[in-house]
C-alpha cells in the first residue's frame, strides 16, 4: 500500500507559485477553489471558486500542463450564494471536451485578480488500477476537520510517490453533512475555506464527488457544488472504464423516481463494470441509529445487481458490516462501510448488532477510507486521524456480474 516518502521527493511542479490554504476572502481575489466530478470525469470537470465582492469579469484559463501554447479561457457563471448575512459570490465553469488521464493547469481570474496556478487530472479511460477516498460528516468540529483535510492532502500527495499505480488517489467521495445547517452560508464559507487544505503541496486539486446529507438542506448545496438549481443530486459516473460510482440522495424519497432510476442505472452498469459502488448519507445497516428508508427502497436492488460496496455516513462512527444478502450473513452479499468521521465528535457503535460482529467491525474515531481498485480485488482500509490504519478488508471480483 502507500509508502511514506518526504514531500521534497514530489515531482517538480511547473507552477511559478502555489497559493496557500486559507486564502483570504478580500474583494475579488479568488478563494475557496474546488473541482467537482458529477458527469464523465474523463472529459469534464466543474471548477468553482468564491469572491467577497461580485466583480464584473470571472473566467478560468486552462491548458494541458507542460504545454507552452496559449491557454484557453472560459467565462464563469456567477451568482450570489443563497443564505447568510454576509455577501459571498460563486463562480462556476464546466470544462468539457477534455482529454482523459490528462493534467490541466488552471488559473482563476476575477477582475484583475489571478489565483496561483493549480492543476487537476481527468479520469482515465484505459483500464488501470487506482484508489479513491471516501468519508462523511465534517460538520461540527472545525479544528478536527482541518486536521483531517491536512491529512487528506498528505495522503493525496504521497499516493503518487511510488511506482504502484494502484496507490494513486484520483478523487474524494464525500457522503454528506458538510456543515451543521445547510442554509447558513457563513458555515459553508468556513467549510469551503477549510477544503482548500486538501490541495496537494504542488498545487494539485483533489476532485470531490459530493452526496447530500440531512444537514445539507437548502439551496446553497447546489450552488457550492455546481449542480443545476433544481437538481435532485443522484447521479452515476465512471472513474475509469471498469469502476462505476453511483451517488444517491437519502434526503428525498428513496422510492418512486429515484428507485426507478437506480434500477435502470444498476441494470445497465453491472454488466459493463468490474466494480460497482454506491454512496449515500443515511445508513441502511447502521451502527448507532435506526435504518434509513433505503433499506426497503434500495437494498433489494443492491442485492439483485450485486453491487460490490455501499459507502455510508451519518452515524459518526466507524463500521464495516459482514456481507449481507436477504437480511443475513452471506459471502455473496453486500458489504456496507461508514459512517462518517471527517470532523465530528464520534459516537459509540452498538457492536452487538449481528451485522457488525466478526468478521465485521465497529469502532469510533475520526477517519477516512481508502478504496483501491485492482484487477481481481477491491481493497479497503480505514485510516484514523494521525495515520493509524484501524481496519483493512478485501472484496474479490464477483465470478459473474450479469443482470437478471
UniProtKB/TrEMBL annotation:
Keywords associated with the record: Signal
Record InterPro entries: Calcineurin-like_PHP (IPR004843), Metallo-depent_PP-like (IPR029052), PAPs-like (IPR039331), PAPs_N (IPR015914), Purple_acid_Pase-like_N (IPR008963)
The keyword Repeat belongs to this UniProt entry's keyword annotation: no
Residue ranges constituting the Calcineurin-like phosphoesterase domain according to the UniProt record: 167-313
Matching Gene3D superfamilies: 3.60.21.10, Purple acid phosphatase-like, N-terminal
UniProt key word Signal: yes
Pfam families listed in its UniProt record: Metallophos, Pur_ac_phosph_N
Gene Ontology molecular-function annotations: acid phosphatase activity; metal ion binding
SUPFAM superfamilies linked to this entry: Metallo-dependent phosphatases, Purple acid phosphatase, N-terminal domain
Purple acid phosphatase N-terminal domain boundaries: 30-122
Superkingdom: Bacteria
Signal peptide stretch: 1-21
Annotated PANTHER family: ACID PHOSPHATASE RELATED, PURPLE ACID PHOSPHATASE
Protein name, UniProt field: PhoD-like phosphatase
Provenance organism: Allorhodopirellula heiligendammensis
Amino acid at each position: 500500500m502507500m509508502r511514506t516518502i518526504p514531500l521534497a521527493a514530489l515531482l517538480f511542479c511547473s507552477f511559478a507559485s502555489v497559493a496557500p490554504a486559507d486564502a483570504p476572502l478580500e474583494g475579488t481575489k479568488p478563494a475557496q477553489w474546488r473541482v467537482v466530478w458529477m458527469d464523465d470525469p474523463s472529459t469534464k470537470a466543474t471548477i468553482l471558486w468564491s469572491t467577497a465582492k461580485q466583480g464584473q469579469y470571472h473566467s478560468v484559463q486552462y491548458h494541458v500542463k507542460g504545454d507552452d501554447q496559449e491557454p484557453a479561457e472560459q467565462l464563469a457563471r456567477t451568482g450570489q450564494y443563497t443564505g447568510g448575512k454576509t455577501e459571498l459570490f460563486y463562480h462556476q465553469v464546466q470544462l468539457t471536451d477534455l482529454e482523459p488521464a490528462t493534467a490541466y493547469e488552471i488559473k482563476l481570474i476575477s477582475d484583475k485578480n489571478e489565483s496561483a496556478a493549480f492543476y487537476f487530472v481527468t479520469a482515465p479511460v484505459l483500464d488501470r488500477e487506482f484508489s479513491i477516498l471516501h468519508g462523511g460528516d465534517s460538520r461540527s468540529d472545525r479544528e478536527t476537520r482541518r486536521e483531517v483535510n491536512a491529512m487528506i492532502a498528505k495522503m493525496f500527495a504521497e499516493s503518487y510517490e511510488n511506482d504502484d499505480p494502484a496507490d494513486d488517489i484520483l478523487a474524494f467521495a464525500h457522503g454528506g453533512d458538510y456543515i451543521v445547517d445547510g442554509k447558513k452560508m457563513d458555515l459553508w464559507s468556513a467549510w469551503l475555506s477549510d477544503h482548500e487544505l486538501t490541495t496537494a503541496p504542488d498545487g494539485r486539486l483533489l476532485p470531490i464527488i459530493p452526496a447530500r446529507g440531512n444537514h445539507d438542506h437548502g439551496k446553497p448545496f447546489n450552488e457550492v457544488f455546481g449542480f443545476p438549481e433544481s437538481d435532485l443530486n443522484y447521479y452515476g459516473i465512471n472513474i475509469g472504464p471498469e469502476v462505476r460510482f453511483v451517488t444517491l440522495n437519502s434526503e428525498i424519497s428513496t422510492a418512486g423516481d429515484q428507485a426507478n432510476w437506480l434500477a435502470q442505472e444498476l441494470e445497465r452498469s453491472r454488466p459493463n463494470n468490474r466494480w460497482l459502488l454506491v454512496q449515500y448519507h443515511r445508513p441502511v445497516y447502521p451502527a448507532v441509529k435506526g435504518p434509513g428508508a433505503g433499506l426497503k427502497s434500495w437494498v433489494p436492488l443492491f442485492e439483485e445487481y450485486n453491487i460490490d460496496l455501499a459507502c455510508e455516513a451519518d452515524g459518526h462512527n466507524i463500521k464495516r458490516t459482514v456481507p449481507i444478502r436477504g437480511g443475513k450473513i452471506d459471502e455473496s452479499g453486500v458489504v456496507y462501510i461508514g459512517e462518517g468521521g471527517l470532523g465530528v465528535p464520534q459516537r459509540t457503535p452498538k457492536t452487538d448488532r449481528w451485522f457488525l460482529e466478526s468478521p465485521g467491525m465497529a469502532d469510533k474515531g475520526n477517519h477516512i477510507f481508502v478504496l483501491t481498485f485492482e484487477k481481481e480485488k477491491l481493497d479497503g482500509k480505514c485510516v484514523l486521524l494521525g495515520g493509524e490504519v484501524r481496519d483493512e478488508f478485501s472484496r474479490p471480483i464477483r465470478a459473474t456480474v450479469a443482470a437478471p
